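Design request, tokens follow.
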């Protein structure tokens, strides 16, 4: 029962990150400092890359081996499917954006909400692995993964709420829209955990799928965002710190 309570609290962590970012509309007159944003995005990149390896791919390989499968096969197949799934979602979002005839803010809200679903699934899969007890995933690993996603959700909440305020929407409404963009994450995570009896036999594939989805988000969205505007090494420093922190915590305490 205690593990279930910890898991339910854990899946809310990314949502808290989005909500915190959305709250910037109340106390920031301008956008987030570019230097701080680069450092924050870089740190999230590092955490998510390390989490993809130590918290998702390595447990997937180990679990597949324990189940008598070809150890690398579920990791390779799941990872590829995770990337392909995010590519298809991106293509679908682009098609809808063209049909919307320039309703930029609506599409921004839709795109952020849409790509939060696989992130929620990634957290859900990790906590499902922890609850299963035989996936080699500790509570700490699952919590750190959720925290890494929460960190990268902070700017996302801000880029929803702050432009809305600049368009004339009230601060309260802009904050609510920012929060709503992230609510799909705990819902997707919760549904994944509810499907635990179905999930367990294919858990190696799902862990690798989550890793593929996360690496896609890092490469396609966070890395370009880190290099926008004035050139700076802060993003690289953030990636390094995030990777080291996640790796050390995972190896020492996982």
């Amino acid at each position: 029962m205690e593990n279930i309570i910890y898991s339910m609290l854990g899946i809310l962590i990314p949502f808290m990150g989005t909500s915190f970012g959305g709250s910037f509309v109340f106390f920031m007159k301008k956008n987030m400092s570019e230097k701080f944003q680069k450092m924050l995005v870089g740190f999230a990149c590092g955490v998510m890359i390390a989490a993809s390896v130590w918290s998702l791919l390595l447990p997937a390989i180990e679990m597949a081996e324990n189940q008598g499968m070809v150890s690398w096969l579920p990791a390779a197949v799941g990872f590829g499917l995770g990337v392909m799934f995010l590519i298809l979602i991106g293509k679908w979002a682009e098609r809808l954006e063209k049909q919307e005839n320039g309703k930029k803010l609506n599409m921004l809200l839709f795109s952020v909400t849409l790509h939060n679903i696989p992130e929620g699934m990634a957290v859900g899969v990790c906590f499902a692995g922890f609850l299963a007890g035989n996936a080699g995933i500790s509570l700490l690993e699952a919590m750190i993964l959720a925290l890494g996603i929460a960190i990268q959700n902070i700017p996302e909440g801000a880029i929803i709420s702050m432009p809305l305020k600049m368009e004339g929407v009230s601060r309260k409404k802009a904050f609510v829209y920012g929060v709503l963009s992230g609510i799909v994450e705990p819902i997707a995570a919760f549904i994944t955990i509810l499907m635990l009896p179905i999930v367990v036999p294919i858990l190696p594939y799902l862990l690798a799928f989550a890793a593929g989805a996360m690496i896609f988000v890092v490469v396609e969205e966070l890395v370009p965002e880190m290099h926008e505007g004035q050139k700076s090494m802060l993003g690289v420093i953030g990636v390094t710190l995030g990777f080291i922190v996640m790796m050390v915590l995972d190896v020492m305490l996982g």
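Comment from the thread starter after seeing the answer: thanks! The chain has twelve helices and no strands.
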